[in-house]
Amino acid sequence: MRSRWFLVAALILALAGSMCLYVYLRQLDRRVPVVVATRDISRHELLGSADVRLAYVHPSALLTGSTRAVADVTGRWAAREIMMGEQVTAARLDAGTGSATALGLGLAFRALFVPCGYARAAGGAIWEGDRIDVIAVTTGLGEPVAYRVAQDLEVLEVRDDQGMRIQRYGSADGLGGVLVAVPDALSESLALAISCGHVYLALRDPAAASFEAIGE
Predict the structure, then answer these.
(1) How far is residue 20's CA from residue 22's CA, in Å, rounded to a whole number?
(2) Half-sphere exposure of 201 toward its Cβ, with a 13 Å CA cutoff?
(3) Are residues 49 and 71 in contact, defined by beta-carbon separation less than 8 angstroms?
(4) Closest CA to 198 of 127, 123, 132, 147
(5) Record: fold of 32-99
(6) CA neighbours closer than 13 Å in the CB half-sphere of residue 166
(7) pLDDT digits (tens, 9 = 90+) for 8-30
């Protein structure tokens, strides 16, 4: 009799183990939809339906703030770069109030356009994401004076002489200037320097900037 009970108990345990294994394997095979980019997307680009698609991943692979429907993304602006195949999260999108939010400036910075041609913009070698210094030159009534009005500013956009954003490096017929992220405390000083004289953009070495940050 006892051996029969042992057999029944073994069968029950085997059945329970099989059920647990089945549920576990089903969970491993579970997939949920998530929106991913179909191409590399730059900052402050307006997203269309062709720029994103649905992919299916395991729930454990979902990133915080991931979007689950294409309709939730189309018509929004990219606040940060999004790589092809990367999940489109809320942190990489604007707050839904327009392109100004997509610049990702936050409360401490302002976007300011600095007009300049190739001769005053490092020969046109400046591109989005570069870091620059702004040097102002004024003549006034005396000797010319040059001074550095701002340092280590991020270039948000490069625009042509018609005010249109240049989409590809080296593709513009005429450089009109750059849109830069300026600390709020420096915005008036930079605007004054632009209106009172000439400004020159000095391109910083990103490797040197990284080395300085490590040294600090």
Answers:
(1) 5
(2) 29
(3) no
(4) 147
(5) Type Iii Antifreeze Protein Isoform Hplc 12 (3.90.1210)
(6) 24
(7) 666 676 677 667 665 665 655 67
